[in-house]
Amino acid sequence: MPAEIIETNQTTFQSVEIDPVTLDIIENALRNARIEMDATLVRTAMSPGIREQGDAFPLIADPSGKMIVGQFGSFIDGFLTQFDGTIEDGDMIFLSDPYSCDGAVSHSNDWLVLLPVFKDGRLIAYTAMFGHQSDIGGSVPGSMPINASSIFEEGVRIPPVKIWRKGEYNEDLMKLVMHQTRKRDWCQADLNALIASCRVASKRIIEMAERFGDDVYVSATQELLARNHRAMKALIAQAIPEAKASFEDYICDDGKGYGPYKIKCTMWREGDKVILDFDGTDPQSAASINFFLNENMFKMFFGIYMIMVFDPQILFNDGFYDLIEVRIPEGSLLKPQFPAALSGRTHALGRIFDILGGLLGQGTPEFLNAAGFSSSPHLFYSGWDTSKDRRDWFQLFQIGFGGIPGRPLGDGPDGHSLWPGFTNVPNEFLERYFPLRIERYSTEPDSGGAGKHRGGNGIHMTYRFLADGEIAIHDDRWFVPPWGVNGGHPGARAKKVLERADGTSVIVGNKVEDVPVKAGDLLHFITWGGGGWGDPLERDPDLVGLEIRQGLVTPEGAKAYGVVADEDGAVDTAATEAMRSKIRSERGDLPLFDYGPGIETLRANCEEETGLPAPIQPEWHDQMAEAAE
Amino acid sequence: MGYRLGVDVGGTFTDLLLFNEDTGAFWRHKTPSTPHDSSEGILNGVEAITQEAGVAASEIEYFLHGTTVATNAVLEGKGAKVGLIVTEGYRDVMQIARSFVPGGLAAWIVWPKPQPLAHLEDTVEVPERMGADGDVVRDLNEDAVRAAMRKLKAQGVEALTVSLINAYVNGAHETRIGDIAAEELPNIPVSLSHEVLPEMQEYERTLSTVANAAVRPVVSNYVSNLRDKLEAQEMKGRLSLLRSDGGLMSSQKAEEHPVNILMSGPAGGVTGALWVGKNAGVKNILTLDVGGTSTDVALIEGLEPRRQRTTEVGHLSVRASALDVKTVGAGGGSIAHVPELTGALRVGPESAGAVPGPVAYNKGGELPTVTDANVVLGYLPEDLLGGSFQLDREGAKKAVQTIADALGVSLMEAARGIIDIVNENMFGALRMISVQQGYDPRDFAVMGFGGAGPLHVNAVAKLMGSWPAISPVSPGVLCALGDATTRMRTETARSFSKLARDTDVSELMAVLDEMENQTRGELLADGVPESAITSEFEVDVRYAGQAFEVPLTIDRATLEKDGIEGLLARFDAEHLRLFTFNMETPHEIVNLRAVALGIAPDLPANELPKGDGDPAAAKIRDHTLWMDGEERAAVIYDRAKLKQGDIIPGPAIITEMDSTTLVENGCTASVDKVGNILINLTEEG
Q1: What 3-state DSSP class applies to B392?
Q2: Does residue A625 have a pLDDT over 70?
């Protein structure tokens, strides 16, 4: 049964003519309201994940639930068809279960607050925001067990419920929820922050409606949707061919020994409409790397890539959704069946952007970027700190960064974030509040793929643990490298090494749980580099020499550019010329995409190159059977 | 007493304002800036203004100066070549920065890779380590330090910065490296991070220290050159520079800590607005400084401007106090366009700048700008005062017509549309500093200045519901006025990082006392007499775990009387006001600051002769302009001839040497006793 919306005022909004200036003013005001949501959140949240790293996403929608401003597209329509209850003035909805909202949030850590905005008895808008909670209970600190077999291991699951019902706070409900987490103070503060953000936006919407009139406000939102529809229609006709084009990329493994998982997308146009079909994507995993991909969210990602190029000032909204059809096979990695575990979805979510870039860019190589939108590498470290003569529980969840790919614009920045708004946590902050020392925080030389424009280097971060505890690591791009384009080389792969206080050293997997560490142990957490862009032999040798002096490239790494130089970055011009012409004569045509040696070769050399056993090819049949257990 | 001279050097003009401290009489002058050596323009101006006033240069007691020299050194990468010494393992601290890429999803595709202010090849590591508690984890390897310095010396660094991990807790290793530098690099200035900014967060501390070192030689050359030239002109008065936080600092001090004058330019307008507000009896002010390419806005509450802990320069965020000035890319030169794809009307952020400029200026501009729309609508009369400068209205019409055609509306509707959009952009910026900070704009007046502020201030006041809209005296040189009328200021900050329950008043006071002595000492050294110095404290409080601190101003007596509980109660109230909720989480006292202030000069404003309320004597001519959907009759007045008490019904235009004030339909302007124009909604009936 769909949700029942209760309005005390039955007058429908009148569609009125909007002059272009008023429309642009309302568009601007909505944009400002969204910025205000972000600002409110960051200032009041407490978990480093939201506070420092900005892992949260706002939304303002029209009365039918279509997103007018935001980043991830609206889920409200899907939610309304599934929600068996009423929506009334004074209500506020709270949820976290991906299976109850059609993947609007894609793992239970993302808590979502939805506020229907009523004005004079009529529903005039929705505001919503979701943010990543650092702990919601479950089998491991951080609540994202990579090896979970089902969502029941991943902490508290919240179906759509009302925190406020007609203005009355549901205290018992919140007590029950907060009782499930290991970090009640963070969850409470972060939830307050989400609520405060939604309330701020709701206030702004009512002010706008008062200023312009309800009918004008609502009509303006409809015109903004229509404007996007028109713009996208023109773009699609212009940029998307009727012939089919495909692109595929991989998730390296699932932490249970299977991998790599292929994600494949095929795109073509039929009339005004674009079809994006994920047929050929590998089956869902028995572990938690599944990404429950909401179709509307993918439409939004697609739209953002398209619109950015032509009128970056335009607000992204849902107006163009009926121009795009997304097909995702049931039971695949991107549409897993309940109760598949979902907490480790970050890798596939990130990989979707590399796939979009490759899919859309292959027709226009001059606009094509290399790969590097790997994922958000995670480190968890928890235990009891006894250094202050008492037992203090500590729990760290940290998101790492890697190399931004080489781009038509130039080199990829080293050790930066591809996610909007994310920043690192200052190391002095970490050392002050957690029992650890960061002994090295640098970029990893040569990890960025060689190219005319170099891929950004990954980060080499060395943790000295000062208390016994357990760590977990979630990272990817350790097996299948981030590809280069237009002759650029792939970036280096991720790697993790644990140096024990007793002098032994082990290579650790990139998706591991419950690894015990002792005070004094060292962890080297090395992330991937971005792929290179363009022919590395066209890079200025003096620039390569400078980057040797800067420690970003080594003399050995310079050879990938056909540059011969010493430790001080002094370039041997004659030797460089000779080396470059030798490489030119021996190589064939430059490939549009350089994926590295290919899956089978990677598999064969895996143990030797990475120190880790090669993952086992996932099979549709076996995996389904396993998931059904 | 004598004269105070305020000088503001902008991109196009150098503004001067000479102030008689006894009578409040003042003279203003505008002269073209001389970017190759700003002191030339300044001296031209000084000569002209002293001549006009009949004052000898030697009678000028204070030379007070707002400058963008430090800002430009950072923005244009013209700072010194800085060598940076860091803890082993942290060479890339500036390269990685905070890993932050601005913009939304996919914005990384178009974000240029920034180059660190201290180049990576000039950054070297030394073995050493402090723990987070200040204990030495690893001794400093002095041989490695000397080797590093020799390397940097060979590379030709002009300044040295030392920024070690956890130096904010224990700066001993930095100090030792400073001592070694005195031996190894005797002629190179050294900046230590724990001295420049003793606060947590390695990137911000390093950046602030490097920024300071990078602009130091530039500022130092600039100041000493200016000082020499002024002295050659018999000007022996005290030279002070305007800090980003709106206070003054001696030029010597500015040479040492130029990081404090990075936003000297925009701060002048705000301090000018403060002085005007004092004389006009208005305490809560939103400032609107509209220039050619951008608009700066700030908030003043109770005659106290809002400050922030960071100074934003380009993409860099330096930890030094600054007035909370927000900038939007909306000004007279902002270009209007209609993207084909969406058919939306956009104004800015692209600007025609000074060259080619708006079409109406006849300097080669072809694209329609905000100024052109103002000309088309009749808000900017074609013959500016004195008739020395004729605007090309026909050209402006032709340009704006392209927008009208693309939108399918009339010429006048298109022109007003451009004005409405640009006003809306200014409104958006003002909301960020008011509503978003929990202030109700209806409790504030809006003051428009800069070349185009008085043209837009009335319309923006309408949007904000902020009255009156104020066009201050000499809106075109308000920055220079601000330079001339503000007071000396210095401050120091420290990380405290303790839960409120784990500390007490005496521990707080012990640290604050020490900081107070330090700041008072600095002002004493700058020649401010002991009796003229007042001290203030600021304490940053947050709920433990939050990233956002609320700064609370406090004095010794209140702290001793109300205790820490009093402080926390104020924090809770402020948090509730800002974010609508409180928490049970313990409070953390994060940072402490001490501010020492010189005495604010009591500078009277010059009174205008009293009139009878009728501005007829100032009338230049009748005029028509387009407003609220139709052609309307209006009157143009000469501001110099207005008397106090004059009442001007809108629509009307008031012109003066360098600015034009627009009174909108349905509004009425009145002239206060010192010449400020206050605009309010016309009362019904």
Answers
A1: coil
A2: no
Is any Cβ of chain A less than 8 angstroms from the Cβ of B176?
Answer: no
Highest mean pLDDT among A195-204, A542-551, B658-667: A542-551
If you write DSSP's letter for every residue of B545-587 in order, what string do you get? T-S--EEEEE-HHHHHHHHHHHHHHHHHHHHHHHHS----SPE
CB contact B94 to A (< 8 Å): no
SS3 for B246?
coil
Contact B436 A369 (CB under 8 A): no
Q: For chain B (length 685 residues), average pLDDT per consecutive 10?
A: 85 84 84 84 92 90 88 83 97 94 82 90 98 96 97 96 96 98 94 90 94 91 91 87 92 89 90 92 95 89 88 83 88 88 81 83 91 95 68 94 93 95 90 78 93 94 94 89 87 86 91 93 87 90 81 88 92 82 85 89 83 93 94 95 95 90 96 95 76
Residue A237 neighbours by CB distance under 10 Å = 12
Q: What is the pLDDT of residue A312?
A: 57
**Among A289, A346, A295, A326, CA closest to A102:** A295
Q: Is B536 exposed, middle or buried (0-12, 13-18, 19+ CB in 10 A)?
A: middle
CATH 1.10.150 fits B489-597, yes or no: no
Grade residue A628 by pLDDT with cuts at 50, 70 and 90: very low
pLDDT at A629 over 60: no
Coil, strand or helix at A352: helix
Q: Which residues in chain B touch residue A422, judged by CB atoms under 8 angstroms apart? A: 99-100
CB-nearest partner of B424 from A28, A43, A230: A28
Task: Please report the residues numbered 110 through 129 in chain B whose beta carbons come closer than 8 angstroms to any beta carbon of chain A.
Answer: 110-114, 119-121, 129
Domain extents for chain A? Answer: 4-232, 368-534
Whether B101 sits inside 8 A of A313 (CB atoms) is no
Q: Which residue of A has its CA nearest to B89?
A: A440
Mean pLDDT over the full length of chain A: 91
Q: Which of A43, A310, A416 sits opposite B548 (nearest CB)?
A: A43
Question: Are B585 and A314 within 8 A, CB to CB?
Answer: no
CB count within 10 Å of CB A450 equals 33
pLDDT in tens, A425-455: 899 989 988 999 999 999 999 999 999 999 9
Question: Comparing C-alpha atoms, which of A176, A50, A203 is closest to residue A115?
Answer: A203
Do strands B82-87 and A4-5 pair parallel, antiparallel, or not at all (unpaired)?
unpaired
Cβ–Cβ contact A420 with B under 8 A: yes
Q: How far is CA B636 from CA B402, B625, B655, B672, in A?
A: 29, 11, 7, 19
Q: Nearest Cβ partner of A20 from B407, B432, B546?
A: B407
A-to-B residue pairs, Cβ atoms closer than 8 angstroms = 219
Residue A155 pLDDT > 70: yes
Domain spans of chain B? Answer: 334-419, 489-597, 609-685
Q: Strand B82-87 and strand B123-126: pairing?
A: parallel
Name chain A contacts of B422, Cβ cutoff 8 Å: none
Beta bridge partners of A393: A384
Any B CB within 8 A of A189 CB: yes
